[in-house]
Write a structure and sequence with these properties.
The protein is mostly helical. Helices cover 73% and strands 0% of the residues.
Protein backbone atom coordinates (compact mmCIF):
# COMPACT_ATOMS: atom_id res chain seq x y z
CA UNK A 1 0.00 0.00 0.00
CA UNK A 2 2.71 2.46 0.98
CA UNK A 3 4.76 1.45 -2.05
CA UNK A 4 1.86 2.22 -4.41
CA UNK A 5 1.24 5.57 -2.67
CA UNK A 6 4.93 6.47 -2.86
CA UNK A 7 4.83 5.79 -6.61
CA UNK A 8 1.73 7.91 -7.22
CA UNK A 9 2.53 10.76 -4.81
CA UNK A 10 5.15 12.59 -6.99
CA UNK A 11 2.67 12.72 -9.88
CA UNK A 12 -0.11 14.10 -7.67
CA UNK A 13 2.27 16.74 -6.34
CA UNK A 14 3.13 17.83 -9.89
CA UNK A 15 -0.54 17.81 -10.94
CA UNK A 16 -1.90 19.89 -8.04
CA UNK A 17 1.11 22.21 -8.05
CA UNK A 18 0.46 23.13 -11.67
CA UNK A 19 -3.27 23.59 -11.06
CA UNK A 20 -3.08 25.65 -7.88
CA UNK A 21 0.25 27.01 -6.64
CA UNK A 22 2.00 27.34 -10.02
CA UNK A 23 -1.02 28.14 -12.17
CA UNK A 24 0.34 29.34 -15.51
CA UNK A 25 -2.21 32.13 -15.93
CA UNK A 26 -2.89 33.42 -12.43
CA UNK A 27 0.54 32.83 -10.88
CA UNK A 28 3.07 32.77 -13.73
CA UNK A 29 1.05 35.20 -15.92
CA UNK A 30 1.53 33.17 -19.11
CA UNK A 31 -1.18 32.73 -21.74
CA UNK A 32 -2.83 36.04 -20.90
CA UNK A 33 -4.07 36.76 -24.46
CA UNK A 34 -6.64 33.91 -24.63
CA UNK A 35 -7.37 34.39 -20.93
CA UNK A 36 -8.63 37.91 -21.59
CA UNK A 37 -9.93 37.32 -25.11
CA UNK A 38 -11.96 34.12 -24.81
CA UNK A 39 -13.23 34.22 -21.23
CA UNK A 40 -16.35 36.29 -21.89
CA UNK A 41 -18.54 33.19 -22.37
CA UNK A 42 -18.30 29.92 -20.44
CA UNK A 43 -18.66 27.64 -23.48
CA UNK A 44 -15.87 29.37 -25.41
CA UNK A 45 -13.68 29.43 -22.27
CA UNK A 46 -14.12 25.67 -21.76
CA UNK A 47 -13.61 24.93 -25.46
CA UNK A 48 -10.43 26.99 -25.61
CA UNK A 49 -9.15 25.42 -22.40
CA UNK A 50 -9.81 21.91 -23.67
CA UNK A 51 -7.89 22.66 -26.87
CA UNK A 52 -4.97 24.14 -24.90
CA UNK A 53 -4.93 21.15 -22.53
CA UNK A 54 -4.79 18.68 -25.40
CA UNK A 55 -1.98 20.62 -27.04
CA UNK A 56 -0.04 20.83 -23.76
CA UNK A 57 -0.25 17.08 -23.07
CA UNK A 58 0.51 15.93 -26.61
CA UNK A 59 3.23 18.56 -27.03
CA UNK A 60 4.83 17.44 -23.76
CA UNK A 61 4.97 13.86 -25.03
CA UNK A 62 6.22 14.77 -28.51
CA UNK A 63 8.84 17.30 -27.40
CA UNK A 64 10.19 14.96 -24.69
CA UNK A 65 10.76 12.28 -27.31
CA UNK A 66 12.30 14.73 -29.79
CA UNK A 67 14.63 16.19 -27.18
CA UNK A 68 15.65 12.82 -25.70
CA UNK A 69 16.00 10.72 -28.82
CA UNK A 70 16.89 13.27 -31.50
CA UNK A 71 18.26 16.61 -30.35
CA UNK A 72 20.47 15.38 -27.49
CA UNK A 73 22.04 12.41 -29.35
CA UNK A 74 22.78 14.65 -32.36
CA UNK A 75 24.07 17.53 -30.23
CA UNK A 76 21.32 19.83 -31.46
CA UNK A 77 20.02 21.05 -28.09
CA UNK A 78 20.32 24.65 -29.33
CA UNK A 79 17.46 23.87 -31.76
CA UNK A 80 15.14 23.08 -28.87
CA UNK A 81 12.93 26.17 -29.00
CA UNK A 82 12.50 26.08 -32.78
CA UNK A 83 11.74 22.35 -32.79
CA UNK A 84 9.22 22.72 -29.98
CA UNK A 85 7.41 25.61 -31.69
CA UNK A 86 7.12 23.55 -34.89
CA UNK A 87 5.61 20.65 -32.96
CA UNK A 88 3.12 22.95 -31.21
CA UNK A 89 2.18 24.60 -34.52
CA UNK A 90 1.50 21.21 -36.12
CA UNK A 91 -0.70 20.14 -33.20
CA UNK A 92 -2.67 23.39 -33.29
CA UNK A 93 -3.28 22.99 -37.02
CA UNK A 94 -4.55 19.44 -36.42
CA UNK A 95 -6.94 20.60 -33.71
CA UNK A 96 -8.12 23.52 -35.84
CA UNK A 97 -8.93 21.24 -38.78
CA UNK A 98 -10.73 18.82 -36.44
CA UNK A 99 -12.87 21.54 -34.83
CA UNK A 100 -13.65 23.11 -38.19
CA UNK A 101 -14.92 19.79 -39.51
CA UNK A 102 -16.73 18.35 -36.49
CA UNK A 103 -17.51 21.32 -34.20
CA UNK A 104 -17.81 24.36 -36.53
CA UNK A 105 -19.72 26.43 -33.96
CA UNK A 106 -16.88 26.21 -31.44
CA UNK A 107 -14.33 26.83 -34.20
CA UNK A 108 -16.17 30.02 -35.15
CA UNK A 109 -16.46 31.11 -31.51
CA UNK A 110 -12.74 30.70 -30.83
CA UNK A 111 -11.89 32.56 -34.01
CA UNK A 112 -8.38 34.02 -34.19
CA UNK A 113 -7.52 32.79 -30.69
CA UNK A 114 -7.33 29.15 -31.80
CA UNK A 115 -4.36 29.55 -34.15
CA UNK A 116 -2.82 31.86 -31.55
CA UNK A 117 -2.28 28.77 -29.35
CA UNK A 118 0.78 28.28 -31.56
CA UNK A 119 2.36 31.37 -30.01
CA UNK A 120 0.84 30.86 -26.56
CA UNK A 121 3.81 31.21 -24.23
CA UNK A 122 2.09 28.93 -21.69
CA UNK A 123 2.23 25.97 -24.08
CA UNK A 124 5.87 26.57 -24.95
CA UNK A 125 6.63 27.19 -21.29
CA UNK A 126 5.29 23.75 -20.32
CA UNK A 127 7.48 21.95 -22.84
CA UNK A 128 10.60 23.87 -21.82
CA UNK A 129 10.03 23.55 -18.08
CA UNK A 130 9.67 19.79 -18.43
CA UNK A 131 13.41 19.70 -19.10
CA UNK A 132 14.31 22.52 -16.74
CA UNK A 133 12.73 20.46 -13.95
CA UNK A 134 14.35 17.28 -15.33
CA UNK A 135 11.04 15.44 -15.62
CA UNK A 136 10.80 11.98 -17.13
CA UNK A 137 8.26 11.08 -19.81
CA UNK A 138 5.37 10.29 -17.43
CA UNK A 139 6.12 13.33 -15.27
CA UNK A 140 6.12 15.54 -18.37
CA UNK A 141 2.67 14.27 -19.34
CA UNK A 142 1.31 14.94 -15.85
CA UNK A 143 2.92 18.39 -15.87
CA UNK A 144 1.26 19.19 -19.20
CA UNK A 145 -2.09 17.90 -17.95
CA UNK A 146 -1.84 19.90 -14.72
CA UNK A 147 -0.90 23.06 -16.61
CA UNK A 148 -3.87 22.56 -18.95
CA UNK A 149 -6.32 21.94 -16.11
CA UNK A 150 -4.94 24.98 -14.30
CA UNK A 151 -5.51 27.02 -17.46
CA UNK A 152 -9.08 25.70 -17.62
CA UNK A 153 -9.69 26.53 -13.96
CA UNK A 154 -8.48 30.10 -14.49
CA UNK A 155 -10.63 30.51 -17.62
CA UNK A 156 -13.80 29.15 -16.01
CA UNK A 157 -13.36 31.21 -12.85
CA UNK A 158 -12.71 34.40 -14.78
CA UNK A 159 -15.64 33.70 -17.08
CA UNK A 160 -17.87 33.87 -14.00
CA UNK A 161 -16.15 37.04 -12.84
CA UNK A 162 -16.72 38.68 -16.22
CA UNK A 163 -20.40 37.78 -16.19
CA UNK A 164 -20.65 39.57 -12.86
CA UNK A 165 -18.83 42.58 -14.32
CA UNK A 166 -21.54 42.91 -16.97
CA UNK A 167 -23.99 43.79 -14.19
CA UNK A 168 -21.59 46.17 -12.48
CA UNK A 169 -21.51 49.92 -12.99
CA UNK A 170 -17.87 50.99 -12.58
CA UNK A 171 -16.76 54.60 -12.95
CA UNK A 172 -16.50 55.76 -16.54
CA UNK A 173 -12.68 55.62 -16.49
CA UNK A 174 -12.77 51.93 -15.49
CA UNK A 175 -15.25 50.71 -18.09
CA UNK A 176 -14.11 48.03 -20.54
CA UNK A 177 -10.55 46.76 -20.37
CA UNK A 178 -9.46 48.64 -17.19
CA UNK A 179 -12.06 46.96 -14.95
CA UNK A 180 -11.32 43.62 -16.62
CA UNK A 181 -7.63 43.94 -15.74
CA UNK A 182 -8.48 44.95 -12.17
CA UNK A 183 -10.74 41.90 -11.85
CA UNK A 184 -8.00 39.68 -13.30
CA UNK A 185 -5.48 40.97 -10.77
CA UNK A 186 -7.88 40.34 -7.87
CA UNK A 187 -8.57 36.83 -9.16
CA UNK A 188 -4.83 36.24 -9.31
CA UNK A 189 -4.42 37.43 -5.73
CA UNK A 190 -6.90 34.82 -4.51
CA UNK A 191 -4.53 32.07 -5.68
CA UNK A 192 -1.95 33.27 -3.18
CA UNK A 193 -4.15 31.52 -0.61
CA UNK A 194 -3.07 28.17 -2.07
CA UNK A 195 0.57 28.76 -1.12
CA UNK A 196 1.87 25.70 0.72
CA UNK A 197 -1.34 23.71 0.32
CA UNK A 198 0.21 21.02 -1.89
CA UNK A 199 3.06 20.39 0.55
CA UNK A 200 0.56 19.91 3.38
CA UNK A 201 -1.79 17.73 1.34
CA UNK A 202 0.91 15.25 0.42
CA UNK A 203 3.22 15.57 3.42
Amino acid sequence: MNTAWDAVKPFLVILFTMILTENYVLVKFLGICPFLGVSKKLDSAVGMSAAVTIVMVVASAATWCIQTFLLVPLGLEYMQTIAFILVIAALVQLIEFTLKKYIPALHKTLGIYLPLITTNCAVLGVTLLNFTNEYGFAQSLVNGLGAGLGFMLAMVLFSGVRRTLLRAKPPKCFEGLPITLVAASLTSLTFMGFTGIVEHLFA
